Each structure stands twice: as structure tokens, then as C-alpha cells.
Amino acid sequence: MKPTIRDVASYANVSISTVSRVMNAPETVAEEKRVKVLEAIEALQYQPNAFARGLIYKKSDTLGVMIPDIENPYYAGLIRGMQDAAVVLGHSLMICNTDRDKERTLAYVQSFFEKQVDGIVFASDSLHKEYYEEMQRLRLPYVLASTNAPEYEIPSVDIDDEQGAYEAVKHLIDSGHRRIGMICFPLDKTISGQPRYDGFARALREAGLNKFVSCVAYAEHRFEDAYEAASQLLARHPELTAVFAASDEFAMGLISYLRDRGRSVPEHVSVIGFDNIRMAHMFIPKLTTIEQPTYDIGYRCVCKLHELITTGEVEVLREKLPHRLIIRESTRRR
């Protein structure tokens, strides 16, 4: 059993408050008692726990991280960036999976508060009014990662989703495609659904392809959802020669559906994704996609949260990091 501060006090024959003062304000304790306490700490190999230190200093050096779906490969790079920044800045991370459940998310916010985290990274999900009000009530510093909330003055780090989607569809148009569809996130439930659809629609309208703006099927978040959406989209629009998928996982679900129906990518249909998750270059065919700098987003979010915690403000409220088009095997000229 680990020794406690009570054990140290008993061993040194002093009060618990004396032990606490030796650890936190040694100059306030007489030398004789200070030596006894230090000898007791050494003999018992006593180490104060992080929670106790947090109570004393009102600082735990721990950051809470809320991820909506820990199984989604997109978050691997994001978390790695957060972890590397946390190590450099002297923080540890406490990661929770919300499953985009409001009650669970609010419970985690309360739990973080009780565990005295110094701040929270809220990743890749809509900042609902309930979340905002609860974090404001608890006065918890927080930063948004791979999401944004323009209605609130909350620091965030993400990319320009609308422009990224526009460039994806523009690549298909420049490759000679004129019958283009999309598998999209629900517009009213996700932070990136509307801007990625807007980018898709803008590129089509600029090219005079307005009639394909409605060639969209919606999927929640997973491969299986995209597989079903692909079935709906291609049943309604079998003439499509290219499809923009709002995520790489959606692109993989679409390609799997096509393969199961005897259609090849890109020979029959060109497919472009979004994110550039690690599997994008391992998949067959290798995915053409819009790369999000997930590692950099995660790293910058922790740096920004550290800045907010230590100074009370951030120099740049809303950071937009650069994305880029990566051309691989899943698209070709028509």
C-alpha cells in the first residue's frame, strides 16, 4: 500500500499540515522539523499524488480532450499532435470519447471540472449551446480542434472546409468529368457538412453543372453508412462518372460498394476523398484526397490552450491551417 501524507506525519511525529508546508513552503518550517519530515519522506518513499498537488496549486498540468469517435482513424493524427505538444509544454492529456452524445459530453465537462483539468480541447464536433453555457459556467478555458463556432468568441484551429471541397470537385471537373455526385455528412448535425456541400455546389455552378448540385446522398460518420449512401446515390443517378466523398472513410465505403457491383475505380467512376488519413495511401486504389494537417491541428490546439491558460488570451482567435490536394490512383481523366 502506498504511504500517505498521514503516514509521513506519524513517522516524523509532526502534524499533517507541517508535512504539507515542508513540501510546498519549506522556508516556513523550523529546520529541525523540516529535516525530520524529509527523512520520513525518504524512508517511506512518499510521493504526493497529482490531485493533491492540484488542490494546493490550483493547477493540475492536465488537459481534457473530448473526441467524438475514438475509432475513427482521422483522430489518430490529431491526438498524436496534441500529445507531442503536451509533452513539450509539460501537460498530460485525459482523453474521453463522447460518441456525439449530449448527455455524455456534458457529464465529461463536469468530470473534467471535478478533476481540476487546466483546460479542454473540444475536437471535431458542433459546439452546441448547452456545451458552451456549461463551460462558461464552470469557467473552463477551452479550444476547438478541427471545428469552429463563429457565433462565439472561442479559440479554434481548423481548415477552410468549403475551399477544400471546392478544390476537390474542381479537380474532377478539370479532369473532364461533368456528371459528379457527392456523399456528404448531414448538413444540420455536423460542423463540416454544410461547408463541404457548399464547396461542392460552388464548383459545379461555376462550371455550369447546376443540375448535379442535388446529386447528393447523406451518411452519418462511418464506412457502413457511406456504403448504404452509395447504394442510394447510384440507384438515383447511375450516370455519374465521379463522386466527391466528404471523408476518406466515406470514399472507402463508396469504392467497396462499387467493387461489390463489379465497377472499377477509377475506370468506371472516379472517387476523391477528404482528410488524407493514414490508410488513404494503403487502400486499393490509393485515394486521391484533400489533406487536412491533422497532426498540426492537434499540436496547435494544445499550444493555443496553453497560451490561453497562462496568459488569459490568445494572439490569434481563429487559425486556419493550409490544406492540399493529393492526387493518387482513385481519379483519372475522362
From TrEMBL:
InterPro entries cross-referenced by the UniProt entry: HTH_LacI, Lambda_DNA-bd_dom_sf, Peripla_BP/Lac1_sug-bd_dom, Peripla_BP_I
Domain HTH lacI-type: 3-57
One Pfam entry name: Peripla_BP_1
Alphabetized SUPFAM superfamilies for the sequence: lambda repressor-like DNA-binding domains, Periplasmic binding protein-like I
Alphabetically ordered keywords of this record: DNA-binding, Transcription, Transcription regulation
Superkingdom per UniProt: Bacteria
Example GO molecular function: DNA-binding transcription factor activity
PANTHER family: HTH-TYPE TRANSCRIPTIONAL REGULATOR EBGR (PTHR30146:SF149), LACI-RELATED TRANSCRIPTIONAL REPRESSOR (PTHR30146)
Protein name per its UniProtKB record: LacI family DNA-binding transcriptional regulator
Organism: Paenibacillus arenilitoris
